[in-house]
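thought: fold this chain, then report.
action: predict
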Amino acid sequence: MDSTAPVETASDPDLAYDVFARNCPSRTTLEHVTGRWGALTLGALHDGTFRFNELRRRVDGVSEKMLSQTLHALERDGLVHREAQPTNPPRVDYRLTPLGGQIAERLLTLIHFVESAQDTVGEAQRAYDSRDGLGGR
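observation:
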């Protein structure tokens, strides 16, 4: 590679947004999608429509508060649709929007890859933690 060639900083110069730019609004959306609870919630909702407590059980370990905050953020971003049923007691269902479904598909590809690579990751972690007696630091 020619070291004098200009370096392109934006991933696609035709796009209006650049996630690598400090004030780009796409950074917030990326954070909502790739944060632990966002990614797991989108992945879970890929399986269908869930009520809040069903979703909370599916995303093991998420607190009620964190799931609520995550769902609000994803709904605001247009990735999750919240539908309140006029019943007594009230029933609220959550499902992916078409955009949320597209993002969830891509996330699940990454999730499945990470799961399949976990043995290799574990080996690398053990090797790192045992090298030079540093215990990983």
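thought: worth noting. The helical segments are 26-34, 36-45, 52-58, 64-76, 98-116, 118-130.
final: tokens above.
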